[in-house]
Design brief:
This protein is α/β, with parallel strands linked by helices. Helix content is about 35%, strand content about 25%. The structure holds L-homoserine.
Length: about 400
């Protein structure tokens, strides 16, 4: 069986490396007599690369070669990945991708092209890098109704927050270190503003709840506004700040889904997930909480997931695997402010005592937070659990405070 790889960047070159290095065992597991990379599509030149003879620049060579049965898309971005993948599926080729942007934006449509052509569209590597999560959700947890899913889905931001929490490092220095280590996206905005995590929670929520969740329907907040003061106050509360993607099935069949910095309590399963590691907690009605943990980024972990999908395509030639979801109705994702949770607030104040007494009067009981060396010109506290819209209305009615940070407290 012949494979083509589109995109010879970090992941694509990792895929070719793994397919070459583990060739014999992969062929055996694929149940095919042979499994070889025939083409590598990339607009760049790679002089001296051991795979130079396979390099092409024209996508049509792959499309028109009937011997290519599986196409790996590791180009990233929406265009031309969407056009290339659509054409391959319509031409009866299975496609494996690591491209979360593509799956989050176009997954439902591409899955329907795959079904119409009796081929597979697999995307294990699009969430959690080397962590098995797509297949476990769709197969191993298939007996459950999944009520909720929450994850540390971005390695770069988890690395930055870990450096801030454990090394008291500034956000800027920690981001620079993450980039130097090769964790960040080309444009780190997608990491630090939460867009990358948003794409991943959309894929997970679509898979868990059966209808496509589009990124623009998911409220998304990154970590750029988190300060070292927040870290210290939250530590005094007994929690840690993590960037979480969260999705939950509501009683009316709709979905709550957000990406925000969130407080998880020290000692909880997600609190100890540090550095570039990812973790995904799946709350099933039969299993209870199951947590998947591992390296969420990096060349070989991600390539491992891609190659496993290639093997799966090879084993399931002529048979579409039942992985997928349908279109969603309008307003499928509810307003995030309808969620109920306690809120951590840090606010600038002119008169601390006066502000505290007004907060207590208007917002109700709050847990005031302090740490050694904290400023008297700001107040930090955690409210009782309440609907976010109502808590925000009460907070906005307090005179003499300027809210600088709002972080949701979770029960994970
Ligand atoms: N930039 C991403 C991260 C890469 O840091 O998690 C993996 O999707």
């Amino acid at each position: 069986m012949n494979v083509a790889v589109m995109g010879y960047g970090t992941v694509g070159s990792g895929v070719v490396e793994v397919l070459t290095k583990n060739h014999d065992s992969i062929v055996k597991r694929s149940t095919q007599s042979e499994l070889e990379v025939k083409y590598i599509l990339d607009l760049r030149d790679f002089p001296g690369d051991p795979n130079e003879d396979k390099m092409i620049k024209d996508f049509n060579i792959i499309l028109n070669d009937d011997d290519v049965k599986v196409v790996v898309e590791t180009m990233g971005g929406l265009h031309p990945a969407y056009e290339f993948v659509s054409s391959c599926l319509k031409a009866g080729k299975s496609v494996v991708t690591s491209n979360k942007e593509l799956v989050a934006a176009k997954g439902c449509e591409l899955l329907s092209f795959a079904a119409e052509n009796n081929v597979n569209f697999l995307f294990e590597a699009s969430v959690g890098g080397g962590i098995p999560i797509i297949r476990p959700i769709s197969q191993c947890l298939a007996a459950n109704e999944i009520d909720e899913i929450a994850g540390i889905l971005n390695g770069t931001t988890n690395f930055i927050l870990t450096m801030m929490i454990e090394k008291n490092m500034s956000f800027e220095d920690a981001l620079k270190l993450a980039q130097d280590n090769g964790y960040a996206e080309k444009d780190p905005t997608a990491d630090v503003e939460g867009h990358d995590a948003c794409r991943k929670i959309c894929i997970l929520a679509s898979l868990c709840f059966g209808k496509h969740v589009y990124p623009d329907s998911v409220y998304t907040e990154g970590i750029t506004k988190i300060t070292l003061d927040d870290v210290a106050y939250v530590n005094a509360y007994g929690g840690v700040i993590k960037l979480l993607g969260r999705a939950k099935r509501m009683e009316n069949g709709k979905i709550f889904a957000v990406v925000t910095p969130a407080i998880v309590m020290q000692g909880s399963q997600l609190a100890s997930v540090n550095d570039v590691f990812n973790a995904i907690l799946v709350r099933g009605d039969a299993t209870g909480d199951v947590v998947f943990y591992g390296k969420g980024a990096g060349k070989l972990p991600t390539a491992s997931a891609v190659v496993a999908d290639v093997i799966d395509c090879a084993r399931n030639m002529g048979r579409k695997k039942p992985i997928g979801w349908g279109e969603a109705e309008e307003n499928y994702v509810v307003d995030y402010k309808t969620a109920e949770n306690p809120l951590y607030i840090r606010a600038a104040v002119e008169d601390y005592e006066k502000a505290l007494s007004e907060i207590t009067e208007k917002v109700g009981n709050v847990k005031v937070l302090v740490f050694e060396g904290c400023k008297k010109t700001e107040i930090a506290f955690v409210t009782e659990c309440g609907k976010e819209s109502e808590l925000c209305e009460k907070l906005n009615s307090v005179n003499g405070i300027k809210i600088e940070s709002l972080i949701r407290v979770t029960d994970y």
